[in-house]
């Protein structure tokens, strides 16, 4: 049965776009779930806490970060250090009927003011850790109290302001929103390419050789009247090489192709060899590079032979001589190409 290739390239562009939409959609759903189920949302918008709200009650309600007002904070005389640097100053204050510890950043506390009359702050609500216990232990000695006695008067939870404004928090938020923005933009672009295939990269890159819309229409027409050579996902028409695989779409005028070669990849799992696949590499004028991965050798050999017959100027096979000839013809490689060449030599 003869296959219908009517608008085949456009249909495949839409199919590839539709398939690629799945990943950003799933990722955005996962980010939404992470926003709902994790404290990330509270870092951005902490829970508003009244001055009389108990820290114990808030902690048991699974509140991780709070935005609150404090009054009459007194410096304990103890600090938090990391790698020899002071990263926080411990204060105590009354909050309703309970005494609480508050760890403030050096900038907020102005490096240890004896008393802070009023403060509006955001911080992580944390259970008393080893460092906070050590502060209470030292305070008990200063006040000639027992550790048990002072611990019974102080809330088992404290406010940690530096943990709400540290590098890790900012890095987490940056990665979260940057990846969200990337996924969202990718999804929007894929929707645009799906709706308007003429704007998709495979068609836009034809602008190097002429008017993309006209070249696409010509390629579609030639493919619709049956290709001169066809494999599962590679086609040769009178004037074009066309790839329509799940890895991407490519349309290249045969007259613009200057070099074709293949390389093999051995697929294995530990010591067991599964198979060998072949990748077709096509270099065209104006620094256009096409890679057609995971094909069988006979298909690629047939494509290469046909291209060489259709355009006698095409260099066939990988060799240093061909590489230098292509580089000379293309002119000075682009900066990224230079970088890749250096990287290959290093490796």
Describe the structure.
This protein folds into 3 domains: 7-37 and 166-199; 48-157; 201-346, PH-domain like, CATH 2.30.29. Helix content is 43%, strand content 31%. The longest helix has 30 residues, at 8-37. It has 12 helices and 14 strands. It has 347 residues and is α+β, with helices and mostly antiparallel strands. Strand 1, helix 3 and strand 2 (65-82) form a beta-alpha-beta unit. The protein is elongated and about 95 Å long. The protein starts with 7 loop residues before the first helix and ends with a helix. The strands form 3 sheets. It has a 5-stranded mixed barrel. Strands 7-8-9-10 form a 4-stranded antiparallel β-sheet, sandwiched between helices.
Order of helices and strands: HHEHEEEHEHHEHHHEEEEEEEHEHH
CATH architecture label of the largest domain = Roll
Strand residues, percent? 25-35%
Query: Which stretches of 5+ consecutive residues score pLDDT under 50?
Result: none
How many domains is the backbone divided into? Answer: 3
CATH fold annotation of the largest domain: PH-domain like
Radius of gyration: 33 Å
Question: How would you summarize this macromolecular structure in one to three sentences?
Answer:
With 347 residues, the chain is of the alpha+beta class. It is built from 12 helices and 14 strands.
